[in-house]
């Protein structure tokens, strides 16, 4: 369908150079990025992660900027019909379209091509993440800690999805806000449950914050409940945004993407400078997820050791117990931030090593070079394991990664036998439980090969 839509809010005018950057005639990279992210937003609600199929079916989709009543408007051509009701674009989708435009323009102009931030050093990267979030107006001062980040997979069972809704409901009754990766499955369930809990409390300003990045958004289109969408420039800045914003984190069952998030966080918390950091972390799922969490806990113990296992609690089949655990943990967060004079809206105090912040480009060379052995500090091992999972995510659902695997075969992972054996067992479980892909999961062909 075709439409012309005007923004509701502050994004009314753009400079001539901004408009030129986004014009498709020159075939610019920024335009194609904008087009694909916009298409993902227009595909909101579709439970599909076949990126190539989505792009192929919508190859005629176009979006452009036009002048409109003294400001700007978006001209959309051949958009998916699911984005419209009775010929009018759904308001939430329209808001997300302008969030895409806002974030891509700001990141490109003020972060990437500007010399304002040194993206080769840790503090510069953290400052960039802060400014992207501030520009998106998701940082709220003078509020008690109550933003709960929920991680989990988009390819989960119906029982796991329903359980994530029950946890979300328990959080909503306690008037907590929810932040997820914005997609389907365990990213949607907590938000859906929290809407009911907030409604029962007659709370009408509940926040459902979705954080994504350009290479993953097509596979994990923003779900319709997200009312604040932010697109970070890469996975590493997205992960940092999660942990800087979070007052507590809940992990539901998932696949390699969820494992990537867990390894990122545990690697940070294992750093001596972050010892005793107040950040409640709970792994949870229904009783049927017991084997999943047992294997995950075993993998963490075999690679990062018992100290890493001590950083989280596993709570099964107890949504209200999870919410109480989080509520109690937030008291420690409040006290810790007050004692350190740290902001409640952005965790500046958390020390994040540069290795966790630098973007990792997955290809056959970089994947084969990962150091998967225990003869290194735990933080470095966590970095390498996180990158291994990130590369498998790329091979599963990112267009560039899929193409590399098609052209050159599976990514190879080398390392110490004890580590690669633990990794192989975990990944085999993900495959057997159909957690690797949402689209046609039963016929999944691994994009990786483990070589001792």
Question: What does this 3D model show about the protein?
Answer:
By secondary structure, the protein is an alpha/beta fold. It folds into two domains: 3-116, MoCo carrier protein-like (MCP/YpsA-like, 2-Layer Sandwich), CATH 3.30.1850.10; 122-452, 3-Layer(aba) Sandwich (Rossmann fold), CATH 3.40.50. Helices cover 47% and strands 13% of the residues. The protein has 17 helices and 14 strands. Helix 2 runs antiparallel to helix 4. The radius of gyration is 21 Å and the shape is globular.
Key features?
13% strand, alpha/beta, single chain, Rossmann fold, MCP/YpsA-like, 14 strands, globular, seven-stranded parallel beta sheet, three-stranded antiparallel beta sheet, 17 helices, 452 residues, 47% helix, 2 domains
How far apart the termini lie comes to 52 Å
> Which structural class is indicated by helix and strand composition?
alpha/beta
Contiguous helical run count: 17
Low-confidence runs of at least 5 consecutive residues: none
Q: Per DSSP, what share of the residues sits in E-state strands of 2 or more residues?
A: 5-15%
Based on DSSP secondary structure assignment, what is the total number of beta strands? 14
Number of domains: 2
What is the molecular shape? Answer: globular
Strand order of the largest sheet: 9-8-7-6-10-11-12
Give the overall average pLDDT: 92
Radius of gyration: 21 Å
> Biggest sheet: strands, sense, closure?
7 strands, parallel
Q: Which CATH C-level class of the largest domain is it? A: Alpha Beta
**Which bin fits the share of residues in helices?**
40-55%
Which architecture of the largest domain per CATH? Answer: 3-Layer(aba) Sandwich
Give me the CATH fold name of the largest domain: Rossmann fold
């Amino acid at each position: 369908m075709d439409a012309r839509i005007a923004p509701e809010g502050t994004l009314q005018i753009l400079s001539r150079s901004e408009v030129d950057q986004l014009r498709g005639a020159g075939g610019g990279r920024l335009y194609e990025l904008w087009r694909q992210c916009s298409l993902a937003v227009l595909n909101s609600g579709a439970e599909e992660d076949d990126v190539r199929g989505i792009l192929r079916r919508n190859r005629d989709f176009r979006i452009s900027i036009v002048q409109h009543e003294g400001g700007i408007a978006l001209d959309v051509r051949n958009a998916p019909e699911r984005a419209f009701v009775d010929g009018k674009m759904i308001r939430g989708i329209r808001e997300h379209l302008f969030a895409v435009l806002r974030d891509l323009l700001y990141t490109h102009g003020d972060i990437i091509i500007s010399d304002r931030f040194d993206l080769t050093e840790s503090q510069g990267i953290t400052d960039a993440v802060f400014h992207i979030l501030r520009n998106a107006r998701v940082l709220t001062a003078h509020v008690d800690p109550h933003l709960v980040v929920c991680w989990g997979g988009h390819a989960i069972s119906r029982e796991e999805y329903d359980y994530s809704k029950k946890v979300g409901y328990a959080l909503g009754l306690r008037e907590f806000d929810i932040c997820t990766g914005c997609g389907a499955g365990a990213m949607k369930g907590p938000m859906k449950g929290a809407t009911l809990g907030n409604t029962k409390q007659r709370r009408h300003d509940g926040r459902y914050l979705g954080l994504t990045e350009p290479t993953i958004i097509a596979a994990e289109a923003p779900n319709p409940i997200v009312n604040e969408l932010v697109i970070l420039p890469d996975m590493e800045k997205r992960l940092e945004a999660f942990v800087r914003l979070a007052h507590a984190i809940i992990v539901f069952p998932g696949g390699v993407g969820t494992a990537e998030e867990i390894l990122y966080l545990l690697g940070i918390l294992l750093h001596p400078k972050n010892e005793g950091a107040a950040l409640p972390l709970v792994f949870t799922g229904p009783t049927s997820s017991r084997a999943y969490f047992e294997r995950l806990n075993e993998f963490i113990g075999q690679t990062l050791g018992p100290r890493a296992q001590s950083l989280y609690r596993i709570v099964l089949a107890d949504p209200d117990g999870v919410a109480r655990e989080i509520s109690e943990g937030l008291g420690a967060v409040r006290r810790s931030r007050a004692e350190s004079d740290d902001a409640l809206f952005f965790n500046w105090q958390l020390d994040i090593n540069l290795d966790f912040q630098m973007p990792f480009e997955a290809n056959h060379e970089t994947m084969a070079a990962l150091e998967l052995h225990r003869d290194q500090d735990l933080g470095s091992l966590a970095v390498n394991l996180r990158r291994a999972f990130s590369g498998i995510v790329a091979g599963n659902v990112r267009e560039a990664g899929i193409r590399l695997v098609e052209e050159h075969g599976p990514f190879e992972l080398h390392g110490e036998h004890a580590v690669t054996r633990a990794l192989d067992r975990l990944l085999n479980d993900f495959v057997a439980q159909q957690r690797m892909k949402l689209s046609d999961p039963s016929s999944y062909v691994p994009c990786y090969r483990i070589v001792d």
